[in-house]
Amino acid sequence: SFLSTQSFRNQIEIMNPQLSNLLLVLGIVQIARKLDLENPEVVIYVRLGYLAAQTVILVVCYLVANKIKERNDTTTLKYVEPAKLFTNEQPKLVDTNNKDYDLSKVRELLKQTLMGFVLMMVLHFYWNFTQPLFIQSIIPLKNVFYNKVVQIHLFGKPAEGDLKRPFKESPLGFSAAQQPQTDKAAIKKAAKASKSGEKDD
């Protein structure tokens, strides 16, 4: 049927970034194997490349955050955030606006960057792994420029289709039930559940 076909297409669109990342990692690993990562001079260049990549990401986050604040788009955004996997939590109603939603996505990107930086420092300086540092000089750069909030505010793409808020998550295997829901029935149900929970408290 049309709906099942459309759902399949949506799943393919969501999976594409993950598949392209996997292929990119495989390619980078092949390149890394040809580098003499035991050579101190090569290691210095890898470190500089990694630091340059992280700096670019931070600059992009700063520019995007400024763009969001300048536009000050306070259009109401209501959606139901799905319950986290393997928990007893219930889906949660989120009542926000485009500006706050987009800024939250920038904060998520900054948090991921910081956590990745700490992990790489441990792997490199404590366990002397250099290959992951080389890989993470490239993958995060690709990810940041394909990031949906960056696409909207830095490249001026319209917030429609795959860039429509709330953004769909991209991990492989996510079903429609694990994506944010914006239909009236889901919002009404979540609002009712929220009020019921408040009364119980």
Structure characterization notes:
The protein is mainly alpha-helical and 201 residues long. The chain is built from 7 helices and 2 strands, in the order ααββααααα. It has a domain at 2-76 and 96-160. The chain has helices at residues 2-34, 40-71, 98-126, 131-135, 139-146, 148-153, 184-200; strands at 76-81, 92-97. Helix 1 (2-34) packs antiparallel against helix 5 and helix 2 (40-71) packs antiparallel against helix 3. The longest helix is centred in the first third of the chain and has 33 residues, at 2-34. It is elongated. It starts with a helix and ends with a helix. Keywords: Membrane, Transmembrane, Transmembrane helix. This is Inorganic phosphate transport protein PHO88. Residues 173-201 are annotated as: Disordered. One of its GO terms (cellular component) is endoplasmic reticulum.
